[in-house]
Amino acid sequence: MAKQKIVLAYSGGLDTSVLVRILGEEYGYDVIACHVDVGEARDKDLVIARAKKAGAVAVEVAAAQDEFARDFCFPALQANAMYEGIYPLSAALSRPLISKHLVAAARKHGATAVAHGSTGKGNDQVRFDLAVKGLAPDLKIVAPQRERNITRDAAIEYAAKHDIEIPATKKSPFSVDENLWGRSIEGGVLEDPNQEPPEEAFAWTKSWKDAPNEPAYLEIGFEAGKPVSVNGQAMGPAALIHEVGRVAGENGVGRIDLMENRVVGIKSRELYECPAAVVLIAAHKDLERFTTLGMSHRVKAMLDTKFAELIYEGFWFSPYRDALQAFNDAHDRTVTGTVRVRLFKGHCQVVGRKSENGIYNHALSTYGVDDAFDHRAAEGFIKLVGLQLQEYSRLHSEK
């Protein structure tokens, strides 16, 4: 009797290499390893070879950097998505994309289940599970790490016992996850909330002390709320994020230290490097304020918080996200133009913007000789807008 097939989200690291063998020998599946390139520094041929040596019957590798940037990072950018006002959701955004490819691989190979290596106390288990439920509710979800809580030492021992090829096993003081939109760092001394992050935790951003002594400037071009150029040069989505991140990181921009409220109720200390995301969100926010009505911008600011929360909590593939995305697409139709950003010693500041859609009239705004504003109209406006307050106070002033 043929074994049932399962598709595993495969990173190529220690944990998922061990899971290939566990799912095959202990769960009884034929394992298809699925690796999705969202910007990690992985050698494709090495990933394939390692998965097959671990026991995978097939390996799917998806080159998804542009897809990730275009279909996930940029919609989040349109929403100015920052969880708890500070985290640009880099890890959270990659999970629905990976899940999408897991489901596609399951359909291709006739698999009845998908698997991931998330633990039972983290956010990613929620994101993977909900994304799969949203896309393919018929597929079973298997999470051996959640069921068994396999320690690093136990995983290394298991790999040695079963001759599973794994990366160098020298213990890093930190747990790191990275993609185009950002780098997440946790563990080690960072588990002490009062411990200043050591410089060795960072890889994408320079310390302000080592950053250049002269500011750098980026002019970012947008069309309908999505970035399309840097300093006048048109770029594809992934290339643009890489370039903005490179310049921002060189100037020390993008470090985030957050006491984070996880989905499962745990409060954890998380460190992030998101140089491109920090700069692009700052630029988009500014251009949005310049080119949209104040009333819709105020409503969108509230919805942006909800958009960030739904990403964090794993509801990307939901009608809720579709509805908010429709609002953002409509709202951002006029968000076209360029924004000039200054980067200096860890600071990012918008210093200029221009757009044919800018709702700005110099003759109305100036206090100079060109002033065309009807100052006398303000008195009638104030009288009407304050009429309710005036009448209330007249009735109740004695009280």
Outline the structure in words.
The protein has 399 residues and is an alpha/beta fold. The protein folds into three domains: 157 residues, Rossmann fold, CATH 3.40.50; 180 residues, Argininosuccinate synthetase, chain A, domain 2 (Alpha-Beta Complex), CATH 3.90.1260; 35 residues. The chain is 43% helix and 20% strand. It is built from 14 helices and 14 strands. The chain has a five-stranded parallel sheet, with helices on both faces. A five-stranded antiparallel sheet has the order 10-9-8-13-14. It has a four-stranded antiparallel sheet with strand order 6-7-12-11. Helix 2 links the parallel strand 2 and strand 3. Helix 1 packs across helix 7, helix 4 packs across helix 5 and helix 10 runs antiparallel to helix 11. The radius of gyration is 25 Å and the shape is elongated. The model has no long low-confidence stretch (mean pLDDT 94).
Supply the key terms.
399 residues, Argininosuccinate synthetase, chain A, domain 2, alpha/beta, Rossmann fold, five-stranded antiparallel sheet, elongated, 3 domains
Query: Secondary-structure element sequence?
Result: EHEHEHHEHEHHEEEEEHEEHHHEEHHH
The pLDDT mean sits at: 94
Biggest beta sheet summary: 5 strands, parallel
Number of β-strand runs: 14
Q: Strands of the biggest beta sheet: in what spatial order?
A: 3-2-1-4-5
Distance between termini?
Answer: 87 Å
| Radius of gyration over all CA atoms, rounded | 25 Å
- β-strand percent reads 15-25%
Question: Looking at CATH, which topology of the largest domain would you report?
Answer: Argininosuccinate synthetase, chain A, domain 2
The helix fraction, in percent, is 40-55%
Whole-number count of domains: 3
Global geometry: elongated
Specify the CATH homologous superfamily of the largest domain.
Answer: Argininosuccinate synthetase, chain A, domain 2
